[in-house]
Amino acid sequence: MDIRLADNRELADRYPVALLQLDGQGRIVHANQAWIRMMGKVCTGEELRAHLHQEDAAAWQAAMRQAEDGGDQSNCCLRFIDPDGRLRWFDLHLTGGVGAFYLSLSDVTSRRRRDARMEASQRGVRSLLDGLPGLIYRGRNNRQWTMEFVSAGCLQLTGYPAEYLIDNYEHSYSSLILEEYAEYVWSNVQQALLHREAYELTYRIRCADGRIKNVWEKGVGIYAETGEVLGIEGAIFEIGDRLKDSLLRPTRE
Fold it and tell me: pTM, whole model, 2 decimals?
């Protein structure tokens, strides 16, 4: 944004994003109407950093130094305090000129607040899932049963931390399933996916310490609009030895 706002004021005022021209010390020389609507009356000669959240002052100084060296800060996001004391987030793009800086700021406050709410919600869901005694998963529909997400209950169930099974073909979940159950699990899941039904399985796994556990699994497919299977998700719990052995007898197709 290498324009002089003093010479192009009418044009600059048409832009929906805030445009500012600063002197070499970061003081406001000119600002367009978008900035004034969002941040109030312009005080010529005032440092822009006076509007910044104090924790972002160092990031602003770093952006100015890089702009002086001929670089851009197009991906920088800074927090400002508006005249009513409210916190606002702006995506910032800064370029340096001879004794001046040219700055555009896009208000992304709504997006950042929405993202913050989503992150808080995801943390709550993750905390709930990790508190369950079983293994909650989302994975790919392949014979390795490669996992994309595994809850913390994986450690209690298998003896392996969740990270051990995520995106790992060598340490995939299929390596835990006893060999005599491998085809039973694969064929029954594929049959359920073919009919877009939930699958329910009982089989045995070998844990990190060598112990054999009886497990019960229930899951569903994840589908694209075209019907293509994108993956699977479900839950696996230990069922103990109290169930009849018939529940754990693999079915040969």
Answer: 0.52
